[in-house]
Amino acid sequence: MLFDLNQYLTAKQRQINQALIALFPKEGSPRIVQAMQYSLMAGGKRVRPILCLAAAEAVGGNPEGLIGPACALEMIHTYSLIHDDLPGMDNDEMRRGQPTLHVAFDEATAILAGDALLTFAFETLTTESNHALPDPVRLRVVQALARAAGHRGMIEGQMRDLAAEGQALDLTELKALHSKKTGALIKCALYIGALIGGGKPNQIEALENFGENIGLAFQIVDDILNVVGDPDIIGKATGTDASRQKSTYPALLGLDQSRAMARESIERALQAITAFDRHADPLRALAAYIIERKR
Amino acid sequence: MLFDLNQYLTAKQRQINQALIALFPKEGSPRIVQAMQYSLMAGGKRVRPILCLAAAEAVGGNPEGLIGPACALEMIHTYSLIHDDLPGMDNDEMRRGQPTLHVAFDEATAILAGDALLTFAFETLTTESNHALPDPVRLRVVQALARAAGHRGMIEGQMRDLAAEGQALDLTELKALHSKKTGALIKCALYIGALIGGGKPNQIEALENFGENIGLAFQIVDDILNVVGDPDIIGKATGTDASRQKSTYPALLGLDQSRAMARESIERALQAITAFDRHADPLRALAAYIIERKR
Known about the structure:
Two copies of one chain form a homodimer. By secondary structure, chain A is mostly helical. Chain A is built from 15 helices and two strands. In chain A, helix 10 packs antiparallel against helix 14. Chain A is globular.
């Protein structure tokens, strides 16, 4: 039987969305919670939490207590988008098909809602529902998330991204930037899933390798979509990289060579997990999805 | 022998500053680390980490592994100041006697450095030097910090603070605001110190009660200093609350009654820890310091 990725994505997205909703009070939520939910529930693709769940499956695990860390990954991703969109950063007005948070609410609320999502990600790792996980594992998850999201990971990537505006980066610099900005959290998603799923060290390493390569492909496709994508489908403006004179793969290599590079990266990702059995089929399908996606 | 608070503060500040410096690379630090250090090492009073250390002493403990959580408290406090000062929030230009981070660096760097300090606080709780602490204790510290700093704690207080500009709050509303904005993290500092120090449940409760009351006094004094303080000593502009039409204790009660209320609050704090022996003398002296401070 062929693996049905659409069905898989829909089921996992529903599971993640339900878990995210369950984390917040049902009624009478104050403005800060409304703001957090506005961005969190705006229909994101849930790529990071799904990769996390799929990595656990790939090592044969489907443990209780994985959904909390998966939600934490999405919260950290969402906070980074909220702060990235701020007037003091990229000053973007549309995201996931709706006005960005500082447009829909106000700038101060957007700053604080981003802070709150980042903080809540760590709180979520310590709540009852994660008590299925042994304490040492939970602490390793806290550490992995903090490192991936922190000033030697995602934030360092964002700093490099800001510094690169109007600069001509070469391919090595561009890869280094994105291995931090996008790659660190995607790799972390694979690591957390593999760790909690009970993967052996060589399996965890293989899945991190997989993560690095799909992370690179993911970013290349993002850059390509910023050139040729449909704003209505992507849910945000296109052409913004060019107008900001950002170094991108298409700008550096052209569209065809960028597409080829993304394909090669996906090949390497699949190569990294050849030793895995059919439980890794969701990951294999996700790798293909990343390169074919239209948003 | 009388307890010498100045000597105590100087020694603890040195210990905390050394620990904070040791967390960062010695040389070649990238711009994001420079920005984090700029605000972190700007000569803050280190009230929260010192309260944390003093709470551990009060229950008779002086454990290894306490300095990491103490540093984490200061990082979270510093990040909250950085974001509070942003143009999209209070738009303040001076802090701790030097230009605020977004003035000295730039707005995007200030947003990211705040994010990075918040994230690094959680990473710090998971590093080797804290392995002296049992895993369940470390997880409780992660949880306590995340809750105190999060959208039901400090951030909720900041939201209320923003909503209150130009509004006339009554005393109950003002107290509720500050019990979140300033109180939550101060109370958390006492909790963490008491927990790691090995305090019994009734001791931890007493120290949290102490924390709530000095937190209130701390905020009242902050408000008073904003009216009558010396900007050169405080290191930031005064009179800003009045020009922003902020609800403050002096605005609501007048200076004399505000001072009386701060004194009563300190009395209640001291009352909460009467059962403690001389190991709580630093806390008693700190309570007096909070009300007498000029900055």
